[in-house]
Specification:
This protein has 104 residues and is mainly alpha-helical. Helix content is 75%, strand content 0%. Helix 2 runs parallel beside helix 4 (67-98).
Length: 104
């Protein structure tokens, strides 16, 4: 049987996953600029992605002992949580405006 060194694959995945965290930025900007309470953001989906990335970070760190991969998953989880927090803030602002309480 052919022995394969998987280090290159883990490295490529780590880099790809780390770069993926940067691709959350357009979503962060869109949610931050939202004037409709970020209604188009499915929070359940973002919570699932955050949980999945957090578990990936734990798995990479605890089971694989791979710090770079764990950090890349952690960055993605943090990006998901930022989007969730911004969407919740936008929705709270929208609700306050609808209820005549002004913008907080």
């Amino acid at each position: 049987m052919l022995e394969l060194n998987h280090d290159w694959l883990i490295a490529a995945f780590s880099v790809s996953n780390s770069v993926r965290a940067l691709f959350y930025l357009p979503q962060v900007i869109a949610v931050a600029r939202s004037v409709d309470g970020a209604r188009d953001i499915a929070l359940s989906t973002w919570w699932m992605w955050a949980a999945n990335n957090a578990l990936g970070a734990v798995y990479a760190g605890v089971v694989m002992y791979h710090r770079v991969l764990a950090i890349s998953f952690l960055l993605s989880a943090v990006a998901c949580l930022v989007i969730i927090a911004l969407a919740l803030r936008a929705r709270r602002r929208m609700n306050r405006c609808r209820n005549g309480l002004g913008v907080a």
